[in-house]
Amino acid sequence: MTEELKDQVEQTEPVQDAVEQPETEVDEIIVDETVEEEVEDSVDEEEDTDVVPVLKTKKEHKPVVNPTAEEDEDFDWDTFSSGAKGFSGHKKEELTDLYNNTLSTIQDREVVDGKVISMNKREVVVNIGYKSDGIVSLNEFRYNPDLKRGDTVEVYVESLEDKKGQLTLSHKKARALRSWDRVNEAMEKDEVIKGYIKCRTKGGMIVDVFGIEAFLPGSQIDVKPIRDYDIYVGKNMEFKVVKINQEFRNVVVSHKALIEAELEQQKKDIIGKLEKGQVLEGTVKNITSYGVFIDLGGVDGLIHITDLSWGRVTHPNEIVELDQKINVVILDFDDDKKRIALGLKQLTPHPWDNLDQNLKVGDSVKGKVVVLADYGAFVEIATGVEGLIHVSEMSWSQHLRSAQDFLTVGDEVEAQILTLDREERKMSLGIRQLHTDPWEKIESLYVPGSKHTAKVRNFTNFGVFVEIEEGVDGLIHISDLSWTKKIKHPSEFTSIGAEIQVVVLDIDKENRRLSLGHKQLEENPWDVFETIFLVDSVHEGTIVELFDKGAVIALPYGVEGFATPRHLTKEDGSAVKVEDKLAFKVIEFSKSAKRIILSHSRVWEDVKRAEERDTKKSQASQTTKAMKAVNDNMEKTTLGDISDLAALKDQMEKDEKDEKDKK
């Protein structure tokens, strides 16, 4: 066994030379039998490899130089095996500990430090103090182009022995694992770390931190909104780790957190000095449709759109622009001073204070329409000075209309001042006052009986409202639309917006209304109808409408009549239908009510009644002749014929009675 150990010691010299480890002279080595057995076991386990385990520390896993000595044929192996103090000057226990350190424990999936002992264009040989060296691909050191022999690098032990017995290492995995530990440590200790902004992504930026891709939200780049993210790409910046997802290994960093502390102190200083009416300088931070956010040095305030200018503002960007420095006045703030209301227009005098003192009610002014509403239009006669033109003051017309029917935004108009209140800063204007009121000379313009063309404006159940000209309205009653047609609703006769010919019937100047007629354009046909549709006269008519209470019958000359259900009975008892053409008798005619009542059943009933009358007359004539003959015969008869005459008389009386019963 001593000879075997000697051979192993002799083999250590070339191995140490290969890794360029400094030589250490060994004066004397004394090993007892126990150590000898341990060395023997270690050598037996490694008899398939040509490399002898090198000495290293357990914690740092750094290579430790194995003592070598020139082969000495006169080496006192007996003294070495007896445990006595040898040429090295070490005791047995010290030598045992020194030897045990060469067998430090290295496990799979562990990150250790190693030393670069050689490298070529493809590979790097790393010594981690194990019985063999590991090889790492040079590609894993691309980030470190200055890597050289002797550098200390961190590696990840993937496998102590692969299929070929080779130690497998990875620098990339070690760097990733160490980076993850460093990131977690940075978050725990709230450290400031450096990172490289690689590129943009949705909602922020991608930052390289210790080789890990971290996410930098857009809101965490700076305390003010960022409008151009591209200017940060390629820059090195300082960050704080604010969030780590251990499960998905996601890291969120923030640059804003570094400057918030400083800004918070500035914010406290500013808030502590805030007073209403105080004028401060600020920077336009953001523009919205409802106002402008101003950065007062770490404290944000809002200028509402109505406080930007004394005049009308459609959008705040008409007044200010981003990053513009402006002076603002503090209008109000809440108890915590977290919401600060600012004003810009308050720094300039109110336009009403500069309004011409000579302006008075009745004066004419010119202005621009800035706002339209259904009830009226706001006209700006000077910057910040507006007047309201109510829709009722836009025209002499009495129709209910909206301001959009008369004006549009941007129109230049002239109006008359109706009211002026300088204290309340209110003004009402009127346009119609600049034009003559047509009702002042209505009697001369629209004489009763005069004919005009009007425009239909509106309908009611009782008539049609029309406008002859702007401000002159009139009503055509439903009964004055037609002489002949029965109109249930004006929409059956005309339509809104249509032109219609009218005749002025009456003038109501007080209520500004005209009574108009349309049928009066023609002569009253009922004067003629009175001579045609006489009572009991028969005319051919067409049934145009049927309903429960009767039927409407169209008669000649465009006139219509009416018949009740009992006057619509046919001779054969069948029911009448729409579009039946039948003979009708006039049973009632009213010129004032323009009403004609008809009957079809009366026609055939009268015919039948006439026939019956003719039959009765014929029978009566025959009876008279018979009676005369009887009387003549009575003068010639004898007593024996009296019974026959009595029978004849009875028969005649019976016939006469039957005739009466029949009637």
Give a nutshell description of this structure:
This protein is of the alpha+beta class. 22% of the residues lie in helices and 32% in strands.
Descriptive notes:
The chain is an alpha+beta fold. It has ten helices and 32 strands. Helix 1 (2-18) packs across helix 2. The longest helix has 36 residues, at 601-636.
Observed structural traits:
663 residues; alpha+beta; OB fold (Dihydrolipoamide Acetyltransferase, E2P); 7 domains; five-stranded mixed β-barrel; five-stranded antiparallel beta sheet; 32 strands
Q: What's the shape?
A: elongated
Note the beta-strand portion. Answer: 25-35%
Radius of gyration: 62 Å
- Mean pLDDT, to the nearest integer, reads 76
Point out poorly predicted stretches: 1-73, 83-89
The CA-CA distance between the termini, in Å, is: 167 Å
Structural class, from helix and strand content? alpha+beta
Strand order of the largest sheet: 3-4-5-7-6
* Structural domains: how many: 7
Give the assembly state of these chains: single chain
**Helix proportion range:** 10-25%
Sheet with the most strands, sense and barrel status: 5 strands, mixed, barrel
Number of helices: 10
The beta-strand count equals 32
